[in-house]
């Protein structure tokens, strides 16, 4: 798959709530994933670790009230999407969150992702 195809497939799976399947299908084994500085998941390396991070996030949710995921913006081997969530978390209560997600693709797989959002 090229970058556009990977981006469109990721958006499709995320909109369907199939986050673990997206990691399984689209991520490279040696992927790196970055969260904002100071986050408890600031840097995650490897597909299985990224999948575990995804599972922990899903398990932290009590309810998703609404969410939206933009269409991707593609530039060569990178793409970005905007994600907005209004969710109730088991430990933190209800919070709205808006983030920009940037991905790098090589040989048809996501080799890096980075998430930009305000903490706290």
From TrEMBL:
SUPFAM superfamilies from the UniProt entry: NTF2-like (SSF54427)
Lineage: superkingdom: Bacteria
Domain SnoaL-like, first and last residues per copy: 1-117
Family annotation (Gene3D superfamilies): 3.10.450.50
The protein's name in its UniProt record: SnoaL-like protein
Organism field: Pedobacter metabolipauper
